[in-house]
Amino acid sequence: MLIIKNCNLINMAGIYEEKRDLVVKDGKIFDICINALDTYGCEHDVIDACGNYVTPGLVEPHCRLGVQEEVFRNEGNDADEATDPILPQLRALDAINPRDEGFQMALAGGVTTAVTCPGDANLIGGTCAVLKTAGSTVDEMVRVPELAFHMCLTDGVKNTYGGKKTPKTRLGSAALIREALMRAQRYHAQWTASVEDPLVKPPKFDMKLHSLMRVFDGMPVKFTAKRGHDMLTAIRIAEEFGLTYTLENCVEAWLIPQELKKHHVKCVIGPTYGEKSSEYRHRDPIAGAVLEENGIEFAVSTGHPTMNIELAAIHLTLMYKKGLTPKTALEAATINAARYCGLEDRVGSLEPGKDADIVIWDGYPFDYYTSAATVLIDGAVVYKKNH
């Protein structure tokens, strides 16, 4: 058993800046109480938080950790299999290098859970995996091998294939995704019928369609769409086929809040800071405050390595400086991000029975100079800041 005493606790489940002790047992939160040493005795391991802020580990809902390595960008970049725009059979899991320096950066930034995805070169690029950010092997780190499909409606696809083969335009991008979904829908119907009735002949096996058909069993889709009209195209396609989906990257989400609200969109914004380009010209940390003002729940992402994952808390601070309230900012990086990935039963808040993924900060979380001092994953210390 481990006791973390003297916490200024923000547990994202009703306790906000209150003095509490955390009790950890078998890698899970066992209890949250006052004066745990009096209740459980002094013979256990103890960490003194010294009155510092303590929060759940941050959850990164969309990045390329381990798939596009931080240092060796070319030799270690396996994010984009740019040989066909439709490749649903690919798995990010198969490319993850646990030695990627990005994992240490994640821990330094207080990120304990990450969803790592294929890149943006393909319309349908394969499936995303859920990892804890500490471990020596992928098998040790992985929590969900295939969480969701990644689909992309950005200039990145056009720039990859335009001039060589389709898609050359946004028209072609949307049409190819629809065609793939239609084929997968028919395949799914035939496959399901053959499973339910042995007399029905199954369709000829097709690896692409066999993978993609899972969206019709509820497997989620992460649509990367930066510009407002691309976001609306993603919504249109998702609603046509009854998909479970989130919108990711969402640079221009703050320009179309009423449309997002109308369609009850689960929106992942970020990175909201960085270079300007055609798709990023409206990028602004004010996005969080605008969505909050319009009553739209959202999650945040660094999109590492687009933005260094070590700056995850700084990313929140930038939005806080532009008007986002502290509580909403922390929700966006913890419980909302977990919920959007279907992980809320395990991570995103500190509650009895959930994973003991904990960050002890060395100052106020929204101060530029604050950083993660101690990080625990499943109740074990995996990172300590060098003072």
Keywords:
single chain, 387 residues, alpha/beta, 12 helices, 16 strands, 28% helix
Number of strands: 16
Q: End-to-end span in angstroms?
A: 27 Å
* Helix count from the secondary structure assignment: 12
Helix content: 25-40%
Rg (C-alpha, Å): 21 Å
Main sheet summary: 8 strands, mixed
* 3D shape: globular
Q: In sequence order, what are the helices and strands, one letter per element?
A: EEEHEEEHEEHEHHHEHEHEHEHHHEEE
Low-confidence spans: pLDDT under 50, at least 5 residues? Answer: none
Mean pLDDT: 95
The amount of beta strand, in percent, is: 15-25%
Summing up helix and strand content along with how strands pair, one would put the structural category as alpha/beta
List the helices and strands and how they pair.
Blueprint: E1 2-10, E2 16-25, E3 28-33, H1 36-40, E4 45-48, E5 53-56, E6 58-63, H2 102-108, E7 111-116, E8 124-132, H3 138-141, E9 142-152, H4 155-161, H5 170-196, H6 207-212, E10 221-225, H7 228-241, E11 245-249, H8 257-262, E12 267-269, H9 287-293, E13 298-300, H10 312-321, H11 326-333, H12 335-340, E14 358-361, E15 372-377, E16 380-384
Parallel strand pairs: 1-4, 1-5, 6-7, 9-10, 10-11, 11-12, 12-13
Antiparallel strand pairs: 1-2, 2-3, 5-14, 7-8, 8-9, 14-15, 15-16
Structure description:
- The chain has 387 residues and is of the alpha/beta class.
- Helices cover 28% and strands 25% of the residues.
- The protein contains twelve helices and 16 strands.
- The strands form two sheets. Strands 1, 2, 3, 4, 5, 14, 15 and 16 form an eight-stranded mixed beta sheet that branches. It has an eight-stranded mixed beta sheet with strand order 6-7-8-9-10-11-12-13.
- Strand 1 (2-10) and strand 2 (16-25) form a beta hairpin.
- Helix 5 (170-196) runs parallel beside helix 7 and helix 10 (312-321) packs antiparallel against helix 11.
- The radius of gyration is 21 Å and the shape is globular.
- The model has no long low-confidence stretch (mean pLDDT 95).
